[in-house]
Amino acid sequence: MEHPAETNFDAIGPIIQVVTTPLALAALAVIILGAVYQLRSQGRQGNKQVFWLILCFGLLGTGTYIAQLFWFSEAVFKGDVRDNASSPIPFAVVDIPGVGTTATNQNGLFQIPVPYTLQRKDYKFIVRVAGYDPNTVDVPGPKPDFTPIVMTPKQVKISDYVDIKDYISVSQNVGDPLLLYSFRVKDQFTGRLRLTDLQIILDDPNGLRKTYYPVMLQRNGFVTPFTGRYVIDEDEAQSDIVLMFSPDGNRLFTKLQELQRDFGSSWLDGCMMGHGLGQEVLGSLQEYFDSVFFWSSGKFAMSIVFRVNDQMQDLKYQFSLSERDVSALKAIRNRLQRCAGMMAFPNQLPSLSYTDPIASNFVTARIN
After folding, report:
1. Range 75-150: architecture per CATH
2. Distance (Å, rounded) from C-alpha 341 to C-alpha 329?
3. In whole angstroms, what is the distance from residue 165 CA to residue 39 CA?
4. Burial class (CB in 10 A: 0-12, 13-18, 19+), 200
5. Domain limits of the chain?
6. Are 246 and 176 in contact (CB under 8 A)?
7. 14-46 confidence digits (pLDDT tens)
């Protein structure tokens, strides 16, 4: 229900607009005619009184017109839209029901011209923009000052965009422990999601904590180095994604460069020719493997930390490795001569399949 004052204000506006303009013109005409009459009737006392009466009415009409211009003229509502960090938000839609709609510019500024016939005692500014919760602001009228509006980022749930697999794969990859985290992008969704600042914090059964960072991304079987962010949009729908995490993405490559420096560029030829690596190369790799082996049997606590657009999120899981799982990972050491477990290059990621009755390149564990 409309406020009575607002109803009276809206009703009187058109009347004032119709009346005051011709009244002012009439008042101006009266003043001019009164001046002429005074000049032609100089010296007569009664005529002077008539002149002052005409002048008063003329000034009253003119004053009424000026007041109408001041109080009932068109107004321009101005303001800006910003986020919680005071950064301007461009292209936000600002709607004032019954008055008008506009959008913010690149600097987050907006303005809406409002004729006095649409001016009210108070207003509701309704602001909408992708990635933020709608905001309704009550603004006093009839001519508001500059109106700042702050938007709150919409809480994004990763589960609205992806189906997370209920398992994780672990490996030792010669010596570096690795984690493979898998999910599938949903078939349909709206919006755009930007994943950045990914890391996995892992606490082993002995209380040792290690942080892992993404180094490779596999999308529908195609592998690329991870560039620091992954954008999920409509083009990514139904994609199967695997992220490979390592505590130090450069450590293995540093070791491989060391082998090339010590044994020449042909140190890997033994893997290609069937007789395996030479004893000196094998001994160096086994020493490296022993120094960085991480896995032990028992329960691991895993925290996946990442930023979704501008919001930090944290997913917590647990998984367990059995003695058999750990033995299978350790047994890679005895297969290093044939280059088992050696994923030195990105194109080896799709075929993570070195297995035999004793050794396993990867062990899969269910997360909960």
Report:
1. Sandwich (2.60)
2. 9
3. 100
4. buried
5. 4-71, 75-150, 158-366
6. yes
7. 444 444 455 555 555 555 655 555 555 555 555
